[in-house]
Amino acid sequence: MNQQQMMKIRKMQKAMMEAQEQLEKTVFKGTAGGGIVSVSIKGDHQVVEVKIDKDAFESQDDIEMIEDSIVAAFNDANKKMEEESQRVMGPFASLGGGMF
Questions:
Q1: Is this prediction's pTM over 0.90?
Q2: Do 81 and 43 meet the contact criterion of CB atoms below 8 Å apart?
Q3: Whole-angstrom Cα distance, residue 37 to residue 83?
């Protein structure tokens, strides 16, 4: 491998690391139950915030629905994070195959 190819690989690795760092800092918000529950997570899978609309509690029977909505909101936020990760990191995966 010549010097120019090595420089190209290093540049690509740097860009890939920067893209990964940006994804890890990005906050993804998922909602469920018509907006009753929202969950925010960072790209490194850390939960940042869980919000529940206070007006959602008319009775104790609503608690089960809220719990189900929290699960759905987490799943929604994770789906958005995965889609963004694939969009951002996808070009690097297709470049790497022929370079090594």
A1: no
A2: yes
A3: 21
